[in-house]
Design brief:
It is built from six helices and four strands, in the order βαβαβααβαα. The two termini are 19 Å apart. It has one domain: 3-Layer(aba) Sandwich (Rossmann fold). By secondary structure, it is α/β, with parallel strands linked by helices. α1 links the parallel β1 and β2. The longest helix has 18 residues. Strands 2-1-3-4 form a four-stranded parallel beta sheet, sandwiched between helices.
Length: 147
């Protein structure tokens, strides 16, 4: 995998534009060599996509969950990604950063209700004003550089 710490981004395909926007904010730290980021768009043609995802989850130093109702209803995300990453958190102390992306019933999910979300203040990142979205993503990316 990589020499630098890896940030694994878990997201619903319905939220790809928000993942891309957030990943853009992480690029500043990537360019400075602080860490590398990984998401499923990095899987090449013909590669075993499931094996690549598993390898990236196992190598990750930080996992970011982009939380939306689509994220919380995805069987693959919940059964494969979240389960594996939370097990690593309990076993090895993997740092997980849940980002409250879009309004959803996150309190109904036990494991998520116990986690401190970003941004602070119990409000989703995507709530209308474009400059606020970039402010929130920039703050979360800057904080990720500290883990």
């Amino acid at each position: 995998m990589a020499e630098n710490p890896i940030v694994f981004i878990s997201y619903s395909r319905h939220d790809v534009k928000w993942k891309d926007r957030f990943a853009g904010h992480l690029e500043v730290s990537v360019k400075q060599g602080h860490f590398e980021q990984w998401n499923d768009k990095m899987i090449g043609a013909g590669e075993d996509w499931y094996a690549e995802i598993c390898a990236a989850m196992d190598a990750a130093s930080i996992a970011v969950f982009l939380i939306s109702h689509e994220f919380l209803r995805s069987d693959f995300i919940l059964r494969k990604e979240v389960t594996r990453l939370i097990e690593r958190r309990e076993r090895e102390g993997l740092h997980i950063v849940p980002v409250y992306l879009r309004k959803c019933d996150r309190e109904a999910v036990d494991w998520l209700a116990r986690m401190q979300m970003r941004p602070a203040g119990d409000r989703p990142v995507v709530r209308g004003e474009e400059h606020v979205i970039d402010d929130e993503f920039a703050d979360i990316a800057k904080e990720s550089d500290c883990f």
